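Weekly sync, protein design subgroup
Attendees: M.S., D.O., the rotation student, P.L. (late)

Item 1: inverse folding check
M.S. brought a backbone from last month's batch and wanted to see whether the design step gives back something sensible before we order anything. D.O. pointed out we never logged the input encoding, so this time it goes straight into the notes. Structure tokens as presented (294 positions):
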């Protein structure tokens, strides 16, 4: 009995196990790349934001003189924002791996240094504003003191002027019925000038062949009597000459000019050897007076 030929036996290898390492590695690499891209975009955006914030801080420091409180608040909010971003970057760095983590950490350190610089700048700005305010306060106090001293001096001078005016003599003029204040010395004459009611021209006239101009008039000394304190003068005004004989010191000698409705006054305070000393008082208002002379 013949046997059938034996069939060859084929061993089918088991299906290869799936290669899971490559997808995982690829996923990690993709994740790292995405993380780097994300961090790069975030840091670039952060640079832009920080540039804007720094500009705002600088503008705020410039406006600090006007409203220091508001500028300090804006600076503080900026620092708080930077600190929040710093914490966010730290968390992102903790999630990174490998070189990405190292790079992120470096950027975090740079950002931290920038935050410290901004805080230092903020403190410096606050100190500068405080110093400026203190200096302004000191200057204001100095000015207030000076104003007080000036006010005191003015009050003192005003009181002295009032006392001097109260002691001035009054004399009734020969041309009008109104009495006028007469100065008998330099202090009283200064008080009259301070009143500002008339123009005053002081003179010292010696006996000579030619008259001496005083203000708008010409005065010639004719004679002096030292023992009796008397003198004689010739007054020329508006081309007319009038002689005033045997006048005494501190006696107002009045005359009209064509330039004013009120009379001018000559007052001689002292007589010496061929010399007289006194002043001419003229009205401030010069609005013309037709046909008047000395």
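Designed sequence read out in the meeting:
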């Amino acid at each position: 009995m013949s046997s059938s030929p034996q069939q060859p036996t084929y061993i089918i290898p088991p299906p290869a196990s799936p290669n899971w390492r490559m997808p995982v590695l690829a996923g990690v690499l993709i994740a790292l790349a995405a993380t780097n891209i994300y961090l790069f975009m975030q840091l670039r955006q952060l640079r832009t934001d920080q540039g804007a914030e720094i500009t705002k801080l600088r503008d705020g420091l410039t406006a600090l003189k006007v409203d220091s409180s508001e500028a300090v608040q804006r600076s503080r909010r900026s620092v708080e924002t930077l600190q929040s971003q710093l914490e966010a970057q730290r968390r992102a760095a903790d999630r990174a791996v490998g070189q990405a983590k190292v790079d992120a950490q470096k950027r975090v350190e740079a950002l931290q240094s920038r935050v410290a610089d901004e805080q230092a700048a903020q403190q410096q700005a606050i100190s500068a504003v405080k110093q400026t305010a203190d200096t302004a306060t000191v200057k204001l106090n100095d000015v207030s003191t000076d104003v007080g001293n000036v006010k005191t001096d003015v009050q003192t001078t005003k009181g002295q002027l009032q006392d001097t005016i109260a002691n001035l003599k009054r004399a009734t003029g020969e041309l009008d019925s109104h009495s006028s204040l007469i100065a008998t010395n330099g202090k009283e004459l200064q008080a009259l000038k301070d009143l500002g009611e008339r123009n005053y021209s002081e003179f010292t006239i010696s006996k000579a062949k030619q008259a001496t101009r005083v203000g708008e008039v010409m005065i010639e000394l004719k004679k002096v009597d030292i023992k009796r304190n008397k003198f004689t003068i010739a007054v020329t005004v508006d081309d007319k000459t009038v002689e005033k004989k045997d006048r005494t010191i501190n006696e107002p000698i009045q005359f009209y000019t064509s330039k004013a409705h009120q009379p001018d006054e000559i007052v001689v305070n002292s007589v010496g050897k061929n010399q007289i000393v006194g002043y001419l008082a003229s009205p401030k208002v010069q609005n013309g007076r037709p046909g008047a002379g000395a």
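Discussion: The chain has a mean pLDDT of 80. The beta strands are 169-172, 179-182, 198-206, 212-214, 217-225, 230-237, 240-248, 253-255, 264-272, 275-283.
Action: P.L. to compare against the previous round before Friday.
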